[in-house]
Amino acid sequence: MATRKPAAKANVSAKELTAWYRDMLLIRRFEEKAGQLYGMGLIGGFCHLYIGQEAVVVGLEAAAEEGDKRITSYRDHGHMLACGMDPKGVMAELTGREGGYSKGKGGSMHMFSREKHFYGGHGIVGAQVPLGAGLAFSDKYRGDDRVTFTYFGDGAANQGQVYETFNMAALWKLPVIFVIENNQYAMGTAQARSTSTPDLHTRGEAFGIPGEIVDGMDVVAVRDAGAKAIRHCRSGKGPYILEVKTYRYRGHSMSDPAKYRTREEVQKMREERDPIDHVREMLLQGKHATEEDLKAIDKEIKAIVTEAADFSRESQEPALDELWTDIYAEVH
Amino acid sequence: MATEILMPALSPTMEEGTLAKWLVKEGDTVQSGDVIAEIETDKATMEFEAVDEGIVGRLLIAEGTEGVAVNTPIAVLVEDGERVEDATPSGPAQQPAPADKTLTSESAPAAAVQHPEPVAVKVVSDWPDGTKVKSQTVREALRDAMAEEMRANPDVFLMGEEVGEYQGAYKISQGLLDEFGSKRVIDTPITEHGFAGIGVGAAFGGLRPVVEFMTFNFAMQAIDQIINSAAKTLYMSGGQMGCPIVFRGPNGAAARVGAQHSQDYAAWYAHIPGLKVCMPYSASDAKGLLKSAIRDPNPVVFLENEILYGRSFEVPVMDDFTVPFGKARVWREGTDVTLVSFGIGMTYALDAADKLAGDGISAEVIDLRTLRPLDTATVIASVQKTNRCVTIEEGFPVGAIGNHISAVLMTEAFDYLDAPVVNLTGKDVPMPYAANLEKHALVTTAEVVQAAKQVCYR
């Protein structure tokens, strides 16, 4: 991974930096709390945490405009918080309560918000890629000047349907940004052990889709790359690939023994490349914020997460009648 | 304030574990994310990280302790400035409880069996008396249905292999490209998995896609998108994200195309909650059901049949003719035996009914038309009259639609049955190529006649 760029950036304001710090911190604290609630048995099943990858969604959301769509895999909590969904509703879905985004019927991997243009939350590796292209298809069909961020991991990048989608997205010039969140491990398989060529951003070349590598631990770099990709899509040139190099600190899911990498590797990444520490340094070194200012933000975030956790425990389990609802939409 | 650290659940099924090793000692300062212990589960040894920051006040469980129950306090963290001596455990941690104990599955039955209302089993026309009718092939009826719905709603579009310039591999979309243009009649590459997913995504985006599979045999490439993405999302989203889409194309055996091109998927799709499934026999049903399918806010699997495409039937000349889902059609009233079928199976059922009449057996013939929802009420009412039932389909015998009908009749009409229900299906073999073997693998009229006589003990 590239070495850290200098902290000072010409194209970013103190206000933006502060907002991103806040958003990234919210994701991290939320995920830590989710891990804790999982440990207490309040969250069940699969729970895939986003800790370490926060700069990816926060940077791209900073580039997005109202009406742009997003869709992702099962590691989705960060995406939902970054696009403005309510932490209370997300946490209550994790605990399987009626106050959750899917009334407790979806769980960690399956939440949606039409209001925030968040289209899930999909549990089958790679399946969200054609779905994202389909969302972009709907915008193009209607003549809406919107783009769809279609997130998937380095593991999904080897799925066949991804390439079927690349072909059609390029052929039909669909306004879709394929965001490959390369956290270097497909579950427990290191990229070098699963992938014949390491440069995933070149995977669109055969279809004429441009792509680039982005430092996913640097929120400013991600925002800038996102803005460039959006310009490409909105100008009618079709899809764009961003291979965002990132790192997940936690296991693939909660029950991951992490035998496939060393503790030192994780520790080194946390100490040297942490995306939140990076922004924190930029804020302090640029004298955009004082330690006191940042402490106040920490406190505010902690309160939001505590409130979400409390809500997720107080919200009732769904009524048993809910078992039978939402299977079919009513015919009008 | 002191914070208790509880024994974590590290997998969906973990109830207890071994506290293998402490990586901190009393008095150490820990940050959120620091690894503080190693915990052994039945599957693996896992690192356990601190969630909160603070100073380790007490270690309550010695390392090496086995069988530590999830949620047992294992350590106490104190804040900076707080005295370690103050950190006394507060007793056993509260077990997380379901929010409302009165709402457990033990205390309420999941679903009672719904007894259908009695219905009249009668030959009833789907259109008003006196309506002009014309003779039309199933092929033309399907095309007209799509054209009418595309004229009515600009969000409806057709995509699939060879639907545009080729005019349809089976000519179902003949003329549609000329009328609606390439924006709405879209030729896809031969990538079923991908274009089915794009169709589903477009439906999430608010459009009304009609996705044609050249045959449903190829839809196996796309079945994950049909089931996991299209059928389940409304439920998984708590009702927010519907998927109004139609997947259509020929299904089942054609003639001499071998095992990979000859499967009937009726039972496969009918199995899935969240899907609606149509399998029309006649041209009027093909038209009326396809129009209903395109308007339906849910994903619909629409199973056609290549051999039926060229058959002609009466179709009403009406501005807007639709057929509702979940309503079987009675083709022939009878008193001695009920023949239940759908799709091309109706050919054998109707032929057999003619032959049985010659032998003095009066057969009632029911076309299910839609398999989900399934009009069990009409079948039950008919069997209450005839006391005997034969089901006819071309799919494989294990887990067949007929098996389900038999189960419904056993539950709902047990006392009315005078003979075991017979399920006629395709044979339990991959479809052979040889003409004689293929014929033998499929249901025949002779088998229907024989089964009807069998249940009538004749």
UniProtKB/TrEMBL annotation, chain A:
<dbReference type="InterPro" id="IPR001017">
    <property type="entry name" value="DH_E1"/>
</dbReference>
<keyword id="KW-0786">Thiamine pyrophosphate</keyword>
<comment type="function">
    <text>The pyruvate dehydrogenase complex catalyzes the overall conversion of pyruvate to acetyl-CoA and CO(2). It contains multiple copies of three enzymatic components: pyruvate dehydrogenase (E1), dihydrolipoamide acetyltransferase (E2) and lipoamide dehydrogenase (E3).</text>
</comment>
<feature type="domain" description="Dehydrogenase E1 component">
    <location>
        <begin position="23"/>
        <end position="319"/>
    </location>
</feature>
<keyword id="KW-0560">Oxidoreductase</keyword>
<dbReference type="GO" id="GO:0006086">
    <property type="term" value="P:pyruvate decarboxylation to acetyl-CoA"/>
</dbReference>
<dbReference type="GO" id="GO:0004739">
    <property type="term" value="F:pyruvate dehydrogenase (acetyl-transferring) activity"/>
</dbReference>
<dbReference type="Pfam" id="PF00676">
    <property type="entry name" value="E1_dh"/>
</dbReference>
<comment type="subunit">
    <text>Heterodimer of an alpha and a beta chain.</text>
</comment>
<dbReference type="InterPro" id="IPR029061">
    <property type="entry name" value="THDP-binding"/>
</dbReference>
<dbReference type="InterPro" id="IPR050642">
    <property type="entry name" value="PDH_E1_Alpha_Subunit"/>
</dbReference>
<dbReference type="InterPro" id="IPR017597">
    <property type="entry name" value="Pyrv_DH_E1_asu_subgrp-y"/>
</dbReference>
<protein>
    <recommendedName>
        <fullName>Pyruvate dehydrogenase E1 component subunit alpha</fullName>
        <ecNumber>1.2.4.1</ecNumber>
    </recommendedName>
</protein>
<keyword id="KW-0670">Pyruvate</keyword>
Automatic annotation (TrEMBL), chain B:
<dbReference type="Pfam" id="PF00364">
    <property type="entry name" value="Biotin_lipoyl"/>
</dbReference>
<feature type="region of interest" description="Disordered">
    <location>
        <begin position="82"/>
        <end position="115"/>
    </location>
</feature>
<dbReference type="Pfam" id="PF02779">
    <property type="entry name" value="Transket_pyr"/>
</dbReference>
<dbReference type="Pfam" id="PF02780">
    <property type="entry name" value="Transketolase_C"/>
</dbReference>
<keyword id="KW-0670">Pyruvate</keyword>
<dbReference type="InterPro" id="IPR000089">
    <property type="entry name" value="Biotin_lipoyl"/>
</dbReference>
<dbReference type="InterPro" id="IPR003016">
    <property type="entry name" value="2-oxoA_DH_lipoyl-BS"/>
</dbReference>
<dbReference type="InterPro" id="IPR027110">
    <property type="entry name" value="PDHB_mito-type"/>
</dbReference>
<keyword id="KW-0560">Oxidoreductase</keyword>
<dbReference type="InterPro" id="IPR029061">
    <property type="entry name" value="THDP-binding"/>
</dbReference>
<keyword id="KW-0450">Lipoyl</keyword>
<dbReference type="GO" id="GO:0006086">
    <property type="term" value="P:pyruvate decarboxylation to acetyl-CoA"/>
</dbReference>
<comment type="function">
    <text>The pyruvate dehydrogenase complex catalyzes the overall conversion of pyruvate to acetyl-CoA and CO(2). It contains multiple copies of three enzymatic components: pyruvate dehydrogenase (E1), dihydrolipoamide acetyltransferase (E2) and lipoamide dehydrogenase (E3).</text>
</comment>
<comment type="subunit">
    <text>Heterodimer of an alpha and a beta chain.</text>
</comment>
<dbReference type="GO" id="GO:0004739">
    <property type="term" value="F:pyruvate dehydrogenase (acetyl-transferring) activity"/>
</dbReference>
<feature type="domain" description="Lipoyl-binding">
    <location>
        <begin position="2"/>
        <end position="78"/>
    </location>
</feature>
<dbReference type="InterPro" id="IPR005475">
    <property type="entry name" value="Transketolase-like_Pyr-bd"/>
</dbReference>
<dbReference type="InterPro" id="IPR009014">
    <property type="entry name" value="Transketo_C/PFOR_II"/>
</dbReference>
<keyword id="KW-0786">Thiamine pyrophosphate</keyword>
<comment type="function">
    <text>The pyruvate dehydrogenase complex catalyzes the overall conversion of pyruvate to acetyl-CoA and CO2.</text>
</comment>
<dbReference type="InterPro" id="IPR011053">
    <property type="entry name" value="Single_hybrid_motif"/>
</dbReference>
<dbReference type="InterPro" id="IPR033248">
    <property type="entry name" value="Transketolase_C"/>
</dbReference>
